[in-house]
Please model this.
Amino acid sequence: MASRYWVSGGNGIFSSTTNWSTTDGGSSGASSPGTSDTAYFTGNSGSGTATLGGNTNIGSLITTGFTGTIALGSNNLILYGSTWTLASSTTITGTGYLENTASCTFTQNSATMTGVPIRSAGGTLTLGGAINVGYITLIGGSINTQGYTIACTGFGISGGSTITVNLNSSTINITGSGQVLNLSAGVSSGSFSAIGSTINVTVTGASYFNIGFFTLNNLYVTTGSAITFYQGGTFNGVWSITPTAPAIVCQFVSSTTWTISSASNFQINGANSTNYITINSSNAGTPFTISCSSGIVSCDYLHIKDSTATGGASFYAGSHSTNVSGNTGWIFSKPPNAGSLMLMGIGS
Model:
């Protein structure tokens, strides 16, 4: 493995020998870093911009002291090494991916990476601190968050027959639209550990959630747009949906089953008679199922259509909710002692 140091004074293209040296602050003319090399950007590298001219493969990336910018454009910067450490003074821009193909540790250190997507293609991507990035995609291998906080525009799994996800009590704050949470595209096996974790989603446009065969802990959704839930899923913690606009539609794919471990954790409620939530099935007349084994589920300000509530718990839709059609197992009134049982603090 060789070390390559970015130096100022060249043409600014990442692959050009006019920008690389074999020593920190040394003369240019060295070959650009390859898949076995470490690319260093330091305080001696200036404050300019390193621009990718195409998809670029390197070993590791370290930007300690670098005050400039790495501009991906639409190109991918693909790492084959074990270290991905940025400085808080570094900026990375573009729509191309930062991607790991082997086990590595990613330490962002508050470097600016607004909207830059991350893709893990192999090995284990281990977080060395909190990150704030664009969309995170796993296409192979695994991710270990080590309990750090993640801010991103979405989290997805795409392809890869075996995927391992360990959220390690992390808080994941997602702000976005479209595929905000897509956990089972192309996955045939693997594991997903969400123990102690919380996923907060702020929906900015029509979005969907594909939880698939995995079990989530806490999922809090705040939305002013329509949302759709695919494939079914299980929640061991709170499942909350809060509307920020009138008549929000929350649709569930027909014939799917959604299981909650505790009745009090089901917190899908409208806010009032204007900001209500419509929950319905994707196919009229073919219901989806919500299951809970015991307790009292307490909701209000819902318009419910084609939903089966089952499992042993008592499902109270609330006195301000509407029984549209096709429902089984729902009780359209407030529960006993509703004043103490209402989950969201809304009135009886």
Notes: Confidence is low (pLDDT under 50) at residues 339-348. The longest strand covers residues 171-185.
